[in-house]
Predict the structure of DHA3 family multidrug efflux protein-like MFS transporter.
Amino acid sequence: MSAIRGDRRVFYQLLVNTLLVSVINFTVWFAVTFWVYLETRSVFATGVISGIFLVLTALTGIWFGSLVDHHRRTVMMQVSAGASVLLYLAALGVWLVTPAEAFKNPASARLWVFVVLLMCGVIAGNIRTIALPTLVTILIEEGDRDRANGLVGTVSGVSMLTTSVISGLLVAFDGMRSVLVLALVVLGLSIVHLATVTVREPAPDPTADGHRRVDLRGTVRVVNGIPGLMALVFFSAFNNLLGGVFMALMDAYGLSLVSVQTWGVLWGVLSTGFIVGGLLIARTGLGSAPVRLLLLVNLVLWVVVLLFPLSASIIPLAAGMYVYMLLVPYAEAAEQTILQRVVPLERQGRVFGFAQSVEQAASPLTAFLISPIAQFVFIPFMTDGAGARTIGTWFGTGPDRGLALVFVLTGALGIIATAVALGSRPYRRLSDRYAASAAESTEPAESTEPVDDAAPGTVAATTPTAPTIPSEGVTPNR
């Protein structure tokens, strides 16, 4: 692997801490989804859980980005973990005082109070997902950031591998109680560990750009000031619109084919694709054209989505999802690398948060709509309706084939959208801007921002230069 220069020691410590927190937050999310489906047997309920997650992600991204830009990033990571601890404690209290029978009714108010508390705890972890790529900008030199982003993807893969196994087994044998106890212990350890890690970063100056809090208007100006960047954000939003289908239906589809224990272990195996993909990026990088790579990877991903549901078997599902997992780190690392290069550091938190909010804003619509549509339209259509009579002889019939048909249609739409994006003007403009930015700033420069005194033995991080984006008077590029 090519050496990642910069302050590697601090970067790796942050990766380890992120691994701990990601594992536990993913465990809570996976576990509550599995558990609610097993308790209620309601596809609609699992879709609502996905919708809650996506709505909260969309609503909080810009705010979280402002917090990251206006405070020390490691402090915000601790605040993130602390908020999750408080919310999980409240959820444990609800669990302890609620009769087990109340959780079996999908219309139970106590069930949804419990679910919302858990999902808010998971969402609090998104502060960390915004802060980490900005810390890559601070700690890692520009030429190695794509490889560092690959390692971040590897951590996500390790998180999903351990998470799916842990959550499946815990839910199968002890419901949600052990999940919550484990979450509180691990998050407490992560807060203690993070207190020992010091990053010398430019001191945050909330008034430097004239805004102390959320600055949506200024952030939009920055994004509009970079040719093609807004189009990239909206392309990702459209992908997430279709991706909401996965959020709402994948667990129900998988659990219709195998047991919860098998499904959890299978996701653990599939998650090795994330690890392999991230390690490949860390070794080889993304090349000189990450914008083109991002779109080509999306094209392959949607082809996979189109193909795997054609057979009613866990084998094509597993094979397709492994390819999907292998390539997703390339898409995520490419988008992060693009933003890290073309957006100034002092705005990166807000731009990452803005991108997160916009990209996720479309998904709740899909997640909330597709579950009842699947339940009341596609499942009957492929069980004893016109679909079963017309294509059922080769496609298969039954509830699982109704869900499979939704995946096939989603893949077809994704392929069309990506092909259009590859031939578009915004794609060419963003590619040109990335190439020009690379030529302008091939080496990092020392920051002129004030830096607070660091703890003994701490390495000072450099702040790389970025193309200057005026905060006022930028004419939007269309």
